[in-house]
Amino acid sequence: APIPGTKIFCVPFVDFDGVIDGDQGKGRTPHDHNRDYTENPIYPEVDAIIQYADRYGCHLGFDFHSPWHKGGENDNIFIVRNRIDKQERFDRFADALQRELSCTDILYSKENDHPPMTGWNQPSTNFGYTMNCREECDLAFSLETAYFGTENNKISTDMLIRLGRSFAKAIKNYISGFCCECDNSVNK
Predict the structure, then answer these.
(1) Which residues touch 183 (CB under 8 Å, ≥6 apart)?
(2) The dihedral sign for the CA sequence 29, 33, 35, 39
(3) Spatial separation of the C-alpha atoms in residues 142 and 126, rounded to whole Å
(4) Which residues have CB under 8 Å from 62's CB, separation 6+?
(5) 86-130 pLDDT, tens digit each
(6) pLDDT of 4 over the 80 cut
(7) What's the rounded Cα separation, in Å, for the pair 148 and 146?
(8) Calpha distance 4→180 (Å, rounded)
(9) What is the DSSP annotation of 9-63?
(10) What is the DSSP string of 140-173?
(11) Rounded distance between C-alpha atoms, residue 28 and residue 68, angstroms
(12) Between helices 87-100 and 157-182, what is the axis angle to 10°?
């Protein structure tokens, strides 16, 4: 059951046209959709998301991505931790997600999460970082999901569906814990 007062807004596919056209966007000129969270976005889909967040707020924001196709960290599921000052919140969510995944699900370990201010993970105009900078936002990030996985953690449609269910339960548990700590009236 949803938590009372919780509004969920889902955008199932931000760059549908790009995918249909075979342009996954990472090298797109002048930038891909996930680098367009600026004062003047060029993509109408991104502009609509920003306008929605401006009107209703964004307390939690999640962007589901697939990284480069294979190799190294890209073969694992990981959270892009984009703010140093929110590491306790990232840990709390990561712990909730780990608890929800069973041994038959996709393997996820918070040790694979990409730390902020490391390598390519710098402040930028991407969804996760931009939403996480909003005053009302508790936590926002990208969840990177491997295309293929590893020999002992192969990606399949069924595994991704189970990951989605576990992710939704982790959100509920994270919100419940947050509400209990911050405002018990929300749970009444």
Answers:
(1) none
(2) positive
(3) 9
(4) 140, 141, 142, 143, 167, 171
(5) 999 999 999 999 999 977 778 899 999 999 999 999 999 999 999
(6) no
(7) 6
(8) 13
(9) ---S-TTHHHHHTT--STT-SS--GGG--SSS-SSHHHHHHHHHHHHH--SEEEE
(10) EEEEE--SSEETTEE--HHHHHHHHHHHHHHHHH
(11) 14
(12) 130
- In one-letter notation, the amino acid at residue 170 is A
pTM reported for the whole predicted model: 0.86
Instruction: Please report, as a single letter, which amino acid is at residue 117.
Output: M
Would the pLDDT of 181 be above 60? no
Q: Is 94 helix (H, G, I), strand (E, B) or coil?
A: helix
Residue type (1 letter), 180: C
The answer to whether residue 33 scores a pLDDT higher than 70 is yes
pLDDT at 5: 66
